[in-house]
Amino acid sequence: MRKTPTKRDNGPAYLLLAPILILLTIFVVIPFFYALVVSFYDWSFYQESAFVGVRNYYLVLTDDLFLESVWTGLKFALMVVPAMLILAFLFANVVKNLSPRFSGFVKTSIYIPTIISGIVASVIFVFIYDYTAGLANYILGWFGMEPKAWLAEVGTALPSIAVPAVWLGFGLTALIMLSGLHDIPESYYEAAALEGAGTWAKMRHITIPLMRNVILYLLVTGFTAQISQFELSLVMTNGGPLSETVTPNLYILNHFRNDVMVGNSIAASLLLFVVLGSISAVIFRVLNSEKAVDG
Amino acid sequence: MHTLTRLQKSLIATISAVVTLVALFPLLWVVIAGFKERAEVLATPFRFFPKRWLVQNYTDILGDGTFLKSMAVTFGGAVLFAVLSLAVNSAAAYVFARLDFRFKRFLWVYVITTMFIPGMAILLTSFIVVNKMGMLDTLWVLVLPGVASAGHMFFIRQFYLNIPLALEEAALIDGAGRIKIFTAVFLPMSFPVFVIVGIGSYLGYWNSFVWPTMTITNPNLFQIMQYLYTFRSERATEMGMLMAGSALSALPTIILFLIFQKHIISGIKISGLK
User: Fold this and answer.
1) Under an 8 A CB cutoff, do A176 and B15 touch?
2) CB of A173 closer than 8 Å to CB of A88
3) Subunit contact A130:B155, Cβ cutoff 8 A
4) Would the pTM of this model clear 0.80, i.e. be above it?
5) Cis status, amide bond into A82, omega within 30 of 0
6) SS3 of A214, please?
7) Bridge partners for B47 per DSSP
8) A268 within 8 A of A255, measured Cβ to Cβ
9) Looking at the complex, does the CB of residue B216 fall below 8 Å from at least one CB of chain A?
10) SS3 call for B1
């Protein structure tokens, strides 16, 4: 941290820091410790709470529905993240070679889905998957295939929700990749070309190794973001069919909304916090304080 | 630059055009579906363009008082949210970037740690807190809880760390106070970072719906995503109106994005990651 050597500025510092400290304390720190306390209680809106030790954690970890939701979240992330990264990587390599004017248009266009809300995306895609009037079954028809109930069949529900997730995240991922590609000096490619390296060799020996950290960053942030996804399954399937599309956060949200006992779901959310929070903390450490990302 | 053959160039242009079209297709479709006749929206076989272009769905949703009110209330809230967020987080960013004070290290850790607490972990207890403060069903319950953001503060601080010390030294020598330097030297230079962080805050507010559905029951304060979510569950048969409403709800965001696109797109990078 940078220091100004001359004198301390306690007064102005505390004055300017007061708003952020007060707001974070009221709306983040207090709720967090409160959640921590509640997780050890048999607590509900309607009755006296009783201390139950780690029983909530035990119940959550032995609840098949919770474990299933974690598995669903993992499957979902494994569908979305690799597909998104590979598509974005390939497309970034294409856009890099475009003329500046056209690439400006392409960059703006692919970014637009990123700013669309999960609700609107869900509405659009429910419509695309509509059994009789949807685009998806219309395309199946071209190939002479029978229509599918995309969101109602156990086999297709989760992949069907993965598609809008890729759609929403593709643009930003591709643009981050593109900026990573622009950071690679053109002279590397020229030198390789002089030595007779082809497109594939350049990709393998220059692009991919130099993009390693960018890809790693996108992989980890993408993974934590997708495993936390719940809006799409909430609106598109409400977790169904059966509980095929219940992600961990949807499990927690459903318990908040439906149960009288909330200690369990708070325990679940804290367990998730430990896992996801430590992943983010590790990324933050790796990126170090001099390196920033936005989006 | 390595040179490409004509064939390669046209191949690259074609792929780009196709991917761009695929990315925009769902949005174009929802806009166009909004122009269909009520019965045609869910008609088989699938048709991309309406038989007859009707503005009925758009006029219906705009005529549905609550929709326009939700748009206006959400827009006002989002702007207020973005402005407050910039004020609170940039002030803290400046302090952590430049000032020296007691407990700096501790307060830095205190603020940064909040970045790793996921919203879902504190969703319910936050609700209890705002309930106890009597904030339910007010604009404040939508705006205040998210204003302070360690992530945004951190991002602005990175920007401030790159401003040369020389710029403020002249002002310091002239006897300007620390707060004066913040408002007179740092704020005027903050435009590039404020565009990115401000739009980010605006988007987060505009697109949120779980928190509004928990804390707002007064229809006069309905947020736009909450409105669409409720519309979908209560008036599921009126698909055309839902399409038109979804399309319109994305419009302010898209316009705002198009205005600032240059700053946003050029701001997307991971610096120092090689």
Assistant:
1) no
2) yes
3) no
4) yes
5) no
6) helix
7) none
8) yes
9) no
10) coil
